Amino acid sequence: MLYCYTANKRLNSVDLVLVSGEMSSYEESESKFWRKAKENPFVPVGMAGFVAIVGYRLMKMKSRGDTKMSVHLIHIRVAAQGFVVGAMTVGVLFSMYRDYFAQPIEQEQKATQPK
């Protein structure tokens, strides 16, 4: 690992790439995010759903009636976690389908095609 000391800050190799000007760490993390999103498409869906549920419920906080704040926050957390767990479950089922059912069918079709 390369180190560069500026203003008593130890930089790692990603920061050194930023210093050299080849590719910023923001662009590198953005490309990593899109690569991971293509591998697991339900991760961004879960993240977006989590943000949407929390945002919606926080906006509706004024109209919660005589429900205690702690109970309302617990309901927000349970709803957001439920959506994320559901997205994870659908993602796992999708990846299992893709790995165990879709690929063997494609391999069988390639094997039966005349050369």
Automatic annotation (TrEMBL):
Gene symbol here is higd1a
Q: Which residues form the HIG1 domain?
A: 10-106
- What is the organism field in this record? Pundamilia nyererei
- Which protein are we looking at? HIG1 domain family member 1A, mitochondrial
Q: Which Pfam families match?
A: HIG_1_N
Q: Which residues cross the membrane?
A: 41-58, 78-97
Q: Supply the alphabetized keyword list.
A: Membrane, Mitochondrion, Transmembrane, Transmembrane helix
| GO CC annotations on file | mitochondrial membrane
Taxonomic classification: Eukaryota, Metazoa, Chordata, Craniata, Vertebrata
Q: Which GO terms describe its biological process?
A: mitochondrial respirasome assembly
Its annotated compartments are: Mitochondrion membrane
Keyword check for Glycoprotein: no
